[in-house]
Each structure stands twice: as structure tokens, then as C-alpha cells.
Design a protein that fits this description.
It is a single chain. The longest helix is centred in the first third of the chain and has 11 residues. The protein has 1 helix and 13 strands, in the order H-E-E-E-E-E-E-E-E-E-E-E-E-E. The protein is mainly beta. The strands form 3 sheets. A 6-stranded mixed β-sheet has the order 3-5-7-11-12-9, with no helix packed on it. The chain has a 5-stranded mixed β-sheet with strand order 4-6-8-10-13, with no helix packed on it. The protein folds into 2 domains: about 30 residues, no CATH class; about 130 residues, Sandwich (Jelly Rolls).
Amino acid sequence: MAFSQNIARLRDLLQNFDIGEVKLLKDMSYQRATLSVGSNKTLDPSESGRLVFLESSAGAFQVTLPSVAAGLHYRLMVTEDTPTGAITVAAGSAILFGNMNESEVDTGDDAPGSGGATGKSNLIIGTSAKKGLWIELYSDGTSWYFFGNAQIDGSVTTS
């Protein structure tokens, strides 16, 4: 059987095949699983890999990360320009390590995050954040590691 025939057969077998967090489409592309959050929410390990859309039109809220486990990961994205209330991403203890990039051009409040071996407990997305701000989080089983991008200086802080 020719290679092109094998590929065509594979496409037929996998047509819109859903394997949990990723849906393979018949053209061999994929669609990432999503979750919309607008109030207090504890992320579940079964939701790992999801793109989590955040909007605070109902006011400030908290997204709590699950207990650390190797391989867990989430991508958080703000879908509201200048959120109504702050959105706190809580790890429960000082186990968040990483930094945020800021796309603005001044030199103040840049790259908020952890310093060296000192972790943070919370990432706080403030009301000056812009639509499209994102934070990616990964766990190695002992800590959470984050990186992301914000368009506005100081729109993400830590505690």
C-alpha cells in the first residue's frame, strides 16, 4: 500500500477522534479543550492541559491550583479588557516559581515573579490587565512553574 494511501486510511480512522483533552480533527489538526471560569474554582487534575478562559464580570474570584503532580499543566487567559475584579491564582503555599514578561517599554515593575529559591503562594491578575494576558503553569510534582505575558506594567503581582 502506498504511503499516501496509508495516510488517507489513518485520517479516516481518526476522523474527529476525541482523546480527552485534545480532539483530533479529520484534517489531522487538533482542537484544545477549554474551560471558562468567572467565579471561585479549584482546578481538577482531570482538567490538565486545558486552556482556561478567565473573566471577572461578577467580581473578584480565585482559581486554586490542584495539589502538585508531575505533568499537570494549564494555560490561563484573560478574556476581559481591564477585569472588573482581581483574579487570584492560588497554589496554597509558596510553591510557585517563575516570572511574567511585560510587553510595555518602561523599566518599572518588570518581570514580577519569584526570586531564586523563594516561591510565591499567589499570582494576582489585577484590574489593569488587558484582554489576552496569559499565564502558563506546569508542575513537576513538587512545585508549580509559571511564565506568561502581560501588556500592562504591574498588571500581575505576587504574594
